[in-house]
TrEMBL record:
The keyword Secreted does not apply. Keywords: Phosphotransferase system, Sugar transport, Transferase, Transport. It comes from Diplocloster modestus. The lineage of its organism: Bacteria, Bacillati, Bacillota, Clostridia, Lachnospirales. This is PTS lactose/cellobiose transporter subunit IIA. SUPFAM superfamilies: Enzyme IIa from lactose specific PTS, IIa-lac.
């Protein structure tokens, strides 16, 4: 179970890092690179989501899934990555608008 949780944490952390890098790229007016960082983050997030969805599937099929602090942390990291993506997209749009580009 710990291995599964740490996979989720790792994928979520990678995604969050990519989303933050996207903001920095947009800040430097590198909007194409910002978009690529968002896509890269989405791939990592999807991998974490896949692992998480497997836990949900197991629980729904009647297999007990122990809930501990590590799983709670993993889910928190997933939510944090999702929020970071939403904020990154807003910041990228804001930087584009500041440059007069269409969003």
């Amino acid at each position: 179970m710990e291995t599964i949780c740490f996979q989720i944490i790792s994928f979520a952390g990678d995604a969050k890092s990519c989303y933050m890098e996207a903001i920095q790229e947009a800040k430097q007016k590198n909007f194409e690179q910002a978009g690529l960082r968002i896509q890269e983050g989405d791939k990592s997030f999807a991998q974490g989501h896949h692992v998480h969805a497997e836990l949900i599937r197991r629980e729904c099929s009647g297999e007990p899934v122990p809930v501990g602090l590590v799983l709670i942390h993993a889910e928190d990291q997933m939510m944090s990555a999702e929020m970071t993506k939403m904020m990154a997209e807003e910041w990228i749009d804001w930087y584009r608008n500041m440059e007069g580009e269409r969003v």
